[in-house]
Amino acid sequence: MVSFDQLRKAKPELFSETAKSWSHCAAKLDDEAGHLTSQVFRPMQRPDVWAGPAAQAAAKHCGNVEQATTDAVDEMRQVAGVLRTLSEEITSAQRELHSALDAARRSNVTVSSDGSKVTAPEIPVPAGQSDLAAQRQKEMQGVVDNIAKLIKDAVDRATKADQAAAQQLRKWGVAMPDADTQAANDAKLGAQAKRAAELAKKAPILSKAELKELDDLLKQNSGNPLFATAFLNDLGPQGALRFGGVLSTMDPYGGDKQRTALLGDLQRQMGTALAAGTDPANHQHVPDAWVKQLEAAGKQKMDIGLRDYQPYGYQILGNLMRSGHYSTSFLKDVGGDLYGFEKSHPGIWQQNSPTGLNGHLHLNISDGNGAGNDPMYGLMRAMADNPEASRQFFSDHGKIDYFLTQRRWPLDFSEPAMPKNYQPPAMGMFGGALESATANAATDPASAEIARHTIETIGKPIDSGGLDGHIPDGLRGHIGNVVANDIKDVHDEFVGGNLDGNTNNYRRVLTDLAKDPNDYAAVYTAEQLHAHTTMHGPKTPFNLDATARVLGTLDYGREEALTEAGGKVDDQYNKSLERYHKVTNLVVGNVAGRIPVPGVGELLSGGIDSAFKSAHHNSAEAMSAQAAISSGKSDDYIRFLAGEAARNGYGSLDQLNSDAQLQISQARDAARDAEIKSPNQ
Known about the structure:
Ferritin, two-stranded antiparallel sheet, about 65% helix, mainly alpha, 28 helices
């Protein structure tokens, strides 16, 4: 039952906001399901793409997935409708209650704190006029009774709406506690947040029991927006950063493994709380002013109890951001401010690293990836986890240029001596953020532009602001995926008879990434799928020569790697190709990977190679086609693809194959001519 006080303090707009979130999720799922159906399920059901018992079984499974997704979308929209109705009803009931209370004030009528008693005021009457007094008291009692009825009706209306909504939501497994339970839960969370802040403020002077209590409180509640908001508001931005930094000083030598693990977990939970409490999409979150104060604190040195070392607030924040899912607005504002501060203070993190007696200190105690002096690790990790934020961030292409060609990456290693082949961990996270930003390159122009700018910047000569086509070792494994994400544009760069000078930038990047077996396999396989789908697709024209040029360029890079290694890595290339032919996400890109439906990935990955050999009608031909596809020998694959193209009306087999084989040979030569050798080659 909804109480008088609960209705008076209710915030019905929260139900409306939640309804919008459910509607947004339903629309997103519906949109993704539509892409999955149109780009995967329907093409796979065409007899010229895939036929036979396996295709029939897959079609049935696809139909089940489609129906399950449709049902889920419908239920999500119904939940949104129930919440909208509840918001409207609570709004109306609250308006009626406020009208009754306004009437009570105007009439000097007293309403008890729980709304159960409505009392008339004393009415003065002249002596000897008892009849007038009785009349006035009767009139006032009518006012009192009317106000009491209005209050009861308002509370009853809210209770009825609350119960109806709860009953409907239970059908879909959506639990909505009654108002009394919710109020009790909120009060409990508030008390726990207050206790957690008290303990955090005491650090580092915490007993073993207090440290365990604080860890338990954060483990249970750090992702809860109400708890996180109250906790962060109590600590304040500087207090939150101070606590995050002090944690790294509480077991500086790591001698107590249990304590070290506990402190690391606390740092992770702090990151989770920071993410939850700063997300404006949550009903409870810190005010904008809190985030602005956090930015100001980030640019200041923080006292964490050490005599000769004070980290910048942003250095501490970078380690907190190693955990938690941060909102787009937070990453845009705080990430942009951190980026601007670093650019205006070159080398600031290297210059402010622990030395001397504090040289053993690691600000990062949560994951073992670096000492934690470079805050860009945490920012890039959070960007990698949020494609929209990374897309917005890197849509300013100057940021790509800065991180690729201008930034001096702090080594930030935590071992006593630099390990062999060590790469700055933050650089790898930058690569992950680029992957995230380009994840939708197949359908989103801004993401595709980020991919193109990245490829072209790496591919340009150094004297033109590029990297001579040499991918930094710390970005290997990431740039290959960026190229695979944008394979359509990469393919299109090789279309036409007169390729412009910009194509050399692509040649250099493809050549260099092909020297790594995994990068080679990712892009090679993506181009194979692109060629096959465009051949059968209704929108994009098929171009066998462009595919031959892309694969020929990749072949040149692979041949260079085999020559340099004396053939020792040939087996690695074959294994990488085999693996990538079985991995859905890097092959079909943005279609299946974003829909968390069990079985879809396995279904598609099992059908990829079958799709390539769909035009063959006997097992011998199918085995030959499969060998051509999986061998990594572009001559064989192009011959197979030419046969597919001939069967689909693109010309004669001999002419198609002859022209494409020539393009492979010329592409290898063009890649050799475009390559800019590094000084140590």
